[in-house]
Give the backbone structure.
Amino acid sequence: MKLLDIGEVAERSGVAPSALRYYEEIGLITSAGRKGLRRQFGRETLLQLSLITLGKAAGFSLQEIAGLFGKEGQPDLPRSQLHARADALEAQIRELSALRDALRHVADCPAPSHLECPRFQKLLQAGTLTAKV
Amino acid sequence: MKLLDIGEVAERSGVAPSALRYYEEIGLITSAGRKGLRRQFGRETLLQLSLITLGKAAGFSLQEIAGLFGKEGQPDLPRSQLHARADALEAQIRELSALRDALRHVADCPAPSHLECPRFQKLLQAGTLTAKV
DNA sequence: GTACAACTTCAACTCAACTTGAAGTCAAGA
DNA sequence: TCTTGACTTCAAGTTGAGTTGAAGTTGTAC
């Protein structure tokens, strides 16, 4: 198996070397070994990093990501919890969609103050995070 | 206009009083005035907080949120930037959908190591954040 | 008019997720 | 062999987004 050193992993994954060391330190990834002092990573690390990047983009903490997908890609969590996570993501997707729509509304609606605009308020209600006004 | 004090705003918005003070300190919200020392907030603050909560859920920083929607709900940004934001959100929604699918796959697919599973890899490719493997 | 819960300020602390800097090591090419 | 650039460790610093604690103030209910 061809091994990559940290610089190459950094370049291909878009994750800074310092971050990769940090990820290793907290046990989120593992290096396949060392050549001298230098860490050598297996190719599967790149896949793991895709997963990590994705998870981060989804707003998971590194700890959570570590739980979602264990070292080798098997989750440490039971099925039901994974589905619960997926459901939570779906809720987040709805929030995001609401915000996207609100943004587009603000961009296009000529009203002076959007907070007053009933259409805008309705868009906000689409999010579930809305305060009890 | 009926004013609310910080405790009530906190309860209705789900945002801690300390956070509300912090938001005021950084200029993200403004209190309508004081009764003695106590801040009094107008009802529109609740709407603003919905927006802030939504923005946070979407991964925006407080600074960015401040830019997206100025104090009174008018954006500080030009139309084109707002649309660009909306587009970025849409991309994020796609990432999230990819992760959701990956999660459901992991929950349901009986393969021992998902990183090896071609179906799983394909799901990852659906995200654009993927490393060059 | 007094008790008390809910507020106030201000500084210091926390936490995650890194980054930066200093000082040292090492592999590979000229 | 020597140089160079990419790595190494370790400690300390940074940023954002608050929280916590101490010490003081005040509106309202009894």
